[in-house]
Automatic annotation (TrEMBL):
Protein name: Fatty acid desaturase
A molecular-function term among this protein's GO annotations: sphingolipid delta-4 desaturase activity
InterPro entries: FA_desaturase_dom (IPR005804), Rhizopine-oxygenase-like (IPR039393)
Taxonomic placement: Bacteria, Pseudomonadati, Pseudomonadota, Alphaproteobacteria, Rhodobacterales
Residue intervals of the Fatty acid desaturase domain: 70-310
Keywords associated with the record: Membrane, Transmembrane, Transmembrane helix
Source species: Vannielia litorea
Domain of life of the source: Bacteria
Record's keyword annotation contains Membrane: yes
Gene Ontology cellular component list: membrane
Transmembrane segments: 52-72, 204-230
Biological processes, Gene Ontology terms: ceramide biosynthetic process
């Protein structure tokens, strides 16, 4: 592949379908049926606990920020509120979109809607987008959620540390949808009967933002926007930091998650913010296992997986050299080595990517 075409309607999209990469049969580590059933058991309790902690902290930090405004003493509380708004909600959007965070469906739906609003991701568009991401993970031309393309756009990545590109695009797409339009690429994966819902939600969001901006104008203060909207910018850094590690620098156009996904051991605070998505190989292999069971799943199948990166800095130390090399040599990627106890990669399924390792 001399130059990748990441458009969902382009040449590589057609090639993925023609070669069988689209909607392919992926490799899975074998787990006894009884063990799998236990792992997939859903429960409301862990997510209710974590959600009370999350929103309790958000109310506390926003309250202190408002009380101390406009003093600089308010800054640490706004920064903390921002991370919970602009990063924790990314993980909540993700897990509730899978419908696995809570046992009770309506709890998943409620938190999914709130988290989608905070992240400026239309809940109907992104539900179908993420389904495609799982069926065609890092397949060029098929996966609409590839964060680091080849060659990597490092300027875009740097801007997104402050939410600039993603938030701007999110607000732009919100207005586009609110005008009654669905983008052609989105129409490629959103069923036609679901598309009116995309438009309806966008119009509700425009009304909420308009009311927030009006309140800010009437009060002569940006405080309403510090609660709604702006935290998506200054709070984005954590979800960008963790999100690029999911697949960054690894193989594309393969059908084994051990080749294109990365598991990273993280500190407890980051794991709470990220809701255990640092166990990312495990999540992609078995996306219906709830977030709170991922550590147990990891222990059950780690014999068949590449060694996890021991920390966030260690993961970046592995990834950054690969990204820099991809600036010059688009075909380069990191090949994750398997332990002796693992079943080998099927070279016949990944011949093209293997040749570039």
């Amino acid at each position: 592949m001399a130059k990748r075409d990441y458009s969902l309607l382009g040449a590589d999209a057609r090639r993925a379908v023609e070669t069988g990469l689209a909607a392919a049969q992926w490799y899975h580590t074998e787990i006894p049926r009884k063990g799998m059933k236990a792992l997939m058991q859903r429960s409301d309790q862990p997510a209710i606990r974590d959600t009370f902690i999350l929103f309790g902290c958000m109310i506390l930090f926003a309250g202190l920020g408002i009380a101390l405004w406009p003093s600089w003493w308010s800054a640490p509380f706004w920064l903390a509120y921002g991370v919970l708004y602009g990063s924790s909600m990314d993980a909540r959007w993700h897990e509730c979109g899978h419908g696995t965070a809570f046992k009770t469906r309506r709890y998943n739906d409620w938190l999914y809607q709130v988290a989608s609003f905070c992240m400026i991701r239309n809940p109907h568009t992104w539900r179908w987008s993420h389904a495609r991401h799982h069926s065609d993970t890092i397949i060029v031309g098929r996966d609409p959620e590839i964060a680091l393309m080849r060659p990597p756009d490092l300027l875009r990545l740097a801007l997104n540390v402050f939410g600039i590109v993603d938030a701007w695009n999110g607000w732009g797409r919100m207005l586009y949808n609110a005008a009654g339009k669905v983008h052609p690429e989105e129409a490629d994966f959103i069923p036609e009967q679901e598309q009116p819902k995309v438009i309806r939600v966008a119009r509700i969001w425009v009304a909420i933002y308009a009311a927030t901006i009006l309140l800010a104008v009437l009060t002569g203060s940006i405080l309403p926007l510090m609660v709604i909207g702006l935290p998506r910018l200054h709070g984005a850094w954590h979800h960008i930091m963790t999100g690029v590690l999911q697949h960054g620098g690894l193989a594309d156009n393969v059908i084994d998650h051990r080749l294109n996904s990365r598991t990273v051991y993280m500190n407890p605070v980051s794991r709470f913010i990220y809701w255990n998505m640092n166990y990312h190989v495990e999540h992609h292999m078995f996306p219906m296992v709830p977030y709170h069971a991922l550590p147990k799943l990891h222990e059950m199948i780690r014999h068949d997986l590449p060694a996890p990166n021991p920390s966030i800095p260690a993961a970046f130390a592995e990834m950054w050299p690969a990204l820099k090399r991809q600036l010059r040599y688009e075909e380069y990627y990191i090949r994750r080595e398997l332990p002796e106890t693992a079943r080998p990669y099927r070279e016949d399924l990944h011949a093209e990517a293997m040749g570039a390792a």
